[in-house]
Amino acid sequence: MDVDEIFEDALERKHLNKMMNSKVFNGFGFRRYHMWGDEEHYQSNWTNIMELSRHSPYLFKNTSQLFVRNANIHCGVEGLIKPIMISVFRIKHFADSNIDYRTNAYKNYINVDPSRKEMYKKFMKQLKNDKHITRKFTEYNFLNLKTWLDYFILNILFMVFYIKRKYL
């Protein structure tokens, strides 16, 4: 995880232990919610919802097949042995909750990886767009129907757009 990411409060040690001791799944992915403008709202335009339908594997069993691709920025663990489960628990990503912080991060990314300069400039321009759509983040609650609906709707989007290509 990055320093500007935290698990939501509902995730407790007992949940992590259950995941780590799974006899079925070799990894668990968590959806990353990009907080926007403050620590209580996340970006919810169509592009962000599609990104939310995916997940990032943050918890996985260590095996000899795992490796990290050589990358200057944002490299990830590869070689995970499937199956991987999408967790109901989520990650809050706070980088975009402060526009100045995010703009400076993109400038640093350009210095580290100049080959992607145009992409980072595009991202900086998007930060200034005042038409961002946000929703209030509500902590996961096992008894709340809305959190389950969100989870299942995102899973359906994930299956339609990503699962065939990457996970089967």
Q: Averaged pLDDT, please?
A: 83
Number of distinct helices: 5
Largest sheet: 4 strands, mixed
Uncertain regions spanning at least 5 consecutive residues: none
User: Between the first and last Cα atoms, what is the distance in angstroms?
Assistant: 25 Å
Binned strand content = 15-25%
Total beta strands: 8
Globally, the shape reads globular
Number of domains: 1
The H/E string reads EHEEHEEEEHHEH
Into which percent range does the helicity of residues fall? Answer: 25-40%
Secondary structure category: alpha+beta
Side-by-side strand order of the widest sheet: 1-7-2-4
Radius of gyration: 17 Å
Task: Describe the model.
The chain has 168 residues and is α+β, with helices and mostly antiparallel strands. It has one domain. It has helices at 13-20, 46-53, 99-112, 117-127, 145-166; strands at residues 5-7, 27-34, 41-43, 56-60, 67-68, 77-78, 84-93, 134-136. A four-stranded mixed β-sheet has the order 1-7-2-4. Strand 5 (67-68) and strand 6 (77-78) form a beta hairpin. It is globular. The two termini are 25 Å apart. The model has no long low-confidence stretch (mean pLDDT 83).
